[in-house]
Every structure is written in C-alpha cells, then in structure tokens.
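To fix ideas, we reproduce below one chain and its tokenised fold.
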Amino acid sequence: MFLLNQHPDYRTPLEPVDAKTLGVPAAEEVERYLTYRDNHAPTPLHTLPALAAELGVDSVHIKDEGFRLGLGSFKALGGSYAVIRLVLEEARCQLGRAIDVAELHAPEVRAVTAGMTVACATDGNHGRSVAQGAQLVGASAAIFVHSGVSDERVAAIARFGAQMIRIEGTYDDSVAEAARVAAEKGWTIVSDTSWPGYERIPGLVMQGYTAMVREALRQLPEAPTHVFVQAGVGGVAAAVAGHLALALGDQRPTFVVVDPARAACVFETARAGRPVRIDHGEPTVMAMLECYEPSLVAWRVLSRVADAFMTVDEKDAVAVMNRLARPTGNDPAIVAGESGGAGLAGLMRAAADPEIRTALHLNGASRVFVINTEGATDPERYAELVGMRPEIVATTPRRADA
C-alpha cells in the first residue's frame, strides 16, 4: 500500500516545541553528551553501488546502526539519552544548582540517582537502551515486556541489571501496564511513544536519535534526494524527517515512512488523517516495529514533514535481510535484523512499481539514504531467517571504501 501525504498540515512549519527538540542545536547537544560515553563511536555508512544499479537510482547509502554503543540498534541513542537528561534534571532540583553531563559520576549526583527508578515497555531495543542508561548513571530500571518478546531479547536487557516484568498481550498492552505500575510506585516512565499529557520524555528520546542524522550528513558525499525510514510508533521516522527538514530547509529530501503491513499504525493514521489505533492481528516478523498505535508527538511531526507512507510485507523484510547478508558486486555484507532493513525494503518495493516511482520522482539521478536500524538483536532468529550466523556475515571481507 502507498499514499502521498494529504494532511492539511503537510509542509507547514513544525510546532515550536518540536523544532526545538529536533533542530540542529539540540542534535549538537546530544552529540556532546555522547562524548561522555565510553563506547561511543560514529556508526558506519556504507555505499551499495550494485543494488543502486539494480534499482535504477544514482546511489544507495545505508547507515548501519548495528554497531551503536554496543547495543546493536539505533535505540541506544534514545532511551539512555533521556535517562541521563532526567537524572541531571533531578540532581539539579535536589542540589539547587545547574548540573552538567560532565558531573554525571560525581558522588553527590550518584547519591541522587541511587534513589531513582526508570521504567518502560519494550519490544526489545528501547528497553535495552533504558536499562543501559540506568546502569550507567546508577539508577534502577524496571522493564515491561509482552508475551511476543523472545527470551534472547529479555536476557539481553536483564544483563544490565534491570528488573524484568512479563505481561500478557501486545506492546501497547505493555505500555499501558508500565504506565499504571509506574504511577503507583513513583517510578519515572521513559517511553518512546507518547499519549495525551505525556510528550516531553518521548521528545527527549526522539532528540537522542538526531545524533545519527548529524553523523550521516557528515558522512554522505552529497545530501540525499530520497530517504526511506521504517516506523513502529513513528519516533525514529519523525526524528529523522524532522531534523532533515530543519537542517536542510528547502533542500530537504523526499521522505517516505515505511510500515509493516501487519502493524501499519502510522500508515493507517496517515490514511485517516488523525491518530488511530489499529486492531491486533497476526504478528509480524518485524518484531521491533509491531506497534498498533502511533506516538502523538511523532505523528504531529510526520503529518508536516513526511511526503509519503507505504507498507512492506513479511517476505520483503526477510528478502532484505538475505540480500544484505549475500550482496552482489562490490556491495558490502551487512547484518540487518528483522526490522533493520524495512526502510530498504520500502525502497526496493517503490523502485519496482512504476506508479510509485513516478509519484516519488525516483529516477536515475536519485540519491537514496536508508538506515539499518538494528543488527541481529536475536541471533538465533537471524540465523533461522538468513541461513547463516550473524558473526559469519559480519566477518565477510568488506571493501575499504564501502
């Protein structure tokens, strides 16, 4: 399914609060925070010339977030950044003075954070980031996971010392339960989705994601003409689209939001012209994108700066995983998890459809940017779908300039 943005707010300026959250100064502040992370390094940007030739575009560049902060996902940028910001704000309130990130490990700050508990719901990646952030600052973490989250992903979160709480139902059910329990216990919810009355903290999470856009703009030889980014609740798509619109202005690329067909809450919201909750159906292989209600903040941004919305099927996601693992020509081998290549799957589907190509002005001069949002966050599942262990794919020789 494909549709162009027909919302009345399309191409209007972002709300001031969103422009402040996602603008260049905010992104630069996120990058400053990252300099205080021991394992911080920019993630690689790869060129896929063989795939670009097959798709009939000038270039395809893919940002590989499988290397982000040791967590294997772009989510490492959001939850932990929000936790750090919230800890510093609480320390400022209790200590009565401004507290900079450089003081994060000062004894008086650690004494404040030792009494804090942060909580969230997760499909896997966001919870890992929140748990890592809590461990980094010396706070406690309680992570709510629904019945569809694999034991491997639960174990990957628990290794950061988080209390793991299993609930029945879907991701959206876990969001509701996390909010309920946190309210009872006085915990701080650090969610990557927003709802009425709860917007600032999801905004901080989205702000964290802008760091990878700043990196990409420095790494790309030219600004992209087209960007395809996957959506769960919409946070990463909104962060990327919003920052590109603010940083590049009239030169911003055509931005396409890609949803799993089985969990297309952002697509259906775009079709309805307002946030909608969709029915839970058969699970999608794109587990990190299996969300049934969009983030209100994310939709507020995407309604203004997304140009089109589309869906991809299960087979599209698995095909991209395999294509990246077994590249042709001089393209490098890339480990992409089940949700990681959904944006690229959208590009491949769009490039194969003459009507969509025309609607997006996708042609031989197009410079396309996509994000591999996760590596093999569940290695066993990856091996099942690709037929190779992720460590084998990761050690495939790469060209020095790839």
Q: What stands out?
A: The radius of gyration is 20 Å. Residues 79-191 form a domain with the Rossmann fold fold (CATH 3.40.50.1100). The mean pLDDT is 95.
